[in-house]
Amino acid sequence: MSKGKEPIPEYLDSNQPDAPEPDPPDTPTWAAVKKGAKWGLVAGFVVAQYFIFSHSIQTPFGSIYGGNLFAVFAVCLGFGTAFGAGIGWLSAQKIDDGRPPPPDLAREL
């Protein structure tokens, strides 16, 4: 646009990108599930590395694993992520300890 020219009001919105709506904040349960899944993925990776190392053939030039690496990583990472997400979900659940709830002062007055 050159100097001194006013924009046409009808065309102001035509080239403007849509303003993205902000993502809503995570609920406490969803945040716990994501955190558990992340740490379960890390644990699954460690288990897969240990399994591959323990089932490898040691040679003078290094170790050789004769199995399917994709299957080992897929199974270990998948189970680790699911197990961690389950633990995260369980940690966010309310536990009833059998005690009665505290008295509600508004009802008693």
What's the shape?
A: flat
The major β-sheet equals: 2 strands, antiparallel
**How far do the termini sit from each other?**
70 Å
Provide the β-strand percentage band. 5-15%
Structural Rg? 28 Å
Instruction: Decide which structural class fits the backbone.
Output: mainly alpha
Summarize the structure.
With 109 residues, this protein is mainly α.
Question: Could you please describe the fold and organization of this structure?
Answer:
The protein is mostly helical and 109 residues long. It has a domain at 26-93. The chain contains three helices and two strands, in the order αββαα. The chain has helices at 28-54, 69-91, 105-108; strands at 57-59, 62-64. Strand 1 (57-59) and strand 2 (62-64) form a beta hairpin. Helix 1 (28-54) packs antiparallel against helix 2. The termini are far apart. The model has no long low-confidence stretch (mean pLDDT 83).
What is this structure's SSE topology?
Layout lengths: L27 H27 L2 E3 L2 E3 L4 H23 L13 H4 L1
Antiparallel strand pairs: 1-2
Helix pairs in contact: 1-2
